[in-house]
Amino acid sequence: MKILKPYDLLKKILIDIEDGIKNNINVFNFSKKYGFSEGHLRRLFSFAFKQSIAAYIRSRTLAASLNDILETDTNIIDIAVEYGFEYEQSYIRAFKREFGITPGDLRKTRQIIKIKPPLHLFDGNKLGDSVFFGPDIVMVPQFHVIGKYHKVSLSDSRNVIARQFWNDERMLVKSAVNPQVFIGLTRNFNRKTGMSEYLPSVQVKNFKNIPQGLSKDTFDTSLCARFRYIGQHHYSDIDRNVAGSMYNAINAATFSYNNLIRYELLTDKVCFEKIDTKLYDGTFCQMEWYTPVSEKH
Question: Once rounded to an integer, what is the mean pLDDT over residues 79-103?
Fold first, then answer.
């Protein structure tokens, strides 16, 4: 079976969900159809859309059933069965959790309710064969890291530097909080010289034991823009070309996304990439990129 590129896979899954609402569509169906494990698909969907695929399918199914509730006299038990619920009460409970009202009361009151619209992928989400999302505006709490300090230029290969730390020096940090999560912290980017400070690192609780030859740093609590990347390659293969494509997309996003119009990206001061290596199962790399933002005046 040909393995789909991440953009194509996610787009087909979103279409299949809408087409299969009345056919009790679920992760098992996608696993069988596309040749990925259920766990892999759950993690991929959650990373891409920041919600579980099961919850999304349930929301879309309940939203689709609204027309039957409001525009027909069909018995609620029959509607429940038609939309894949084994029991009427399980449908009613799910309906009330989703909309804050039972289907019977909605029929009587005809009140306006909020639904979860279908998700979409757009051309702006496509980065070659990869997928790019963002920005989200998030609050990142303070955290501490220990890593290997480097002064680098734009021509330096950061993935080589990061790989060396990950393979040879990471194990020296015995106090790592999440030893499988790589954090690449960049500070003080000088646009004239192209130089910056780069610290491939892992998070620690405190600085009690800093191995010889390694350095410490603290990322302060900050309001940040978060971007997410999914590529069909190993995480160590995020080279200069991949990174350059992402940074170009990030710069374009500052002008094209409504939720960044109010904010200015502080990339010259500090930013970091974050890779949870546990999420890589031989197919897709998943990476997050953060930079603080300030509100425009």
Answer: 96
CA dist., res. 220 & res. 46, Å (int): 27
Dist CA 272 CA 241 (whole Å):
18
Residue 84 clears pLDDT 50, i.e. is over it: yes
Half-sphere exposure in the Cβ direction for 50 (13 Å, CA): 11
Q: Which of 69, 84, 109 is the last residue of a domain?
A: 109
Query: Distance between CA atoms of 248 and 252, rounded to whole angstroms?
Result: 6
Helices and strands (H and E) in the chain: how many: 9, 11
- Are 296 and 258 in contact, with CB atoms under 8 Å apart? no
- As a whole number of Å, the CA-based R_g of the chain is 23
Q: Are residues 170 and 247 in the same domain?
A: yes
Beta bridge partners of 198: 150, 186
Domain that residue 88 falls in: 6-109
Neighbours of 59 (CB within 10 A): 18
Average pLDDT over residues 221-249: 86
Pair 130, 177 in one domain: yes
Residues 30 and 72 in one domain: yes
The last residue of one of the domains, among 109, 140, 169, is 109
Q: What is the CATH number of the domain that holds 80?
A: 1.10.10.60
How many Cβ atoms sit within 10 Å of the Cβ of residue 102? 16
For the chain, the domain total comes to 2
Q: How many CB atoms lie within 10 A of CB 111?
A: 10
Cα distance between residue 130 and residue 229, in whole Å: 7
Distance CA 13, CA 133 (A): 17
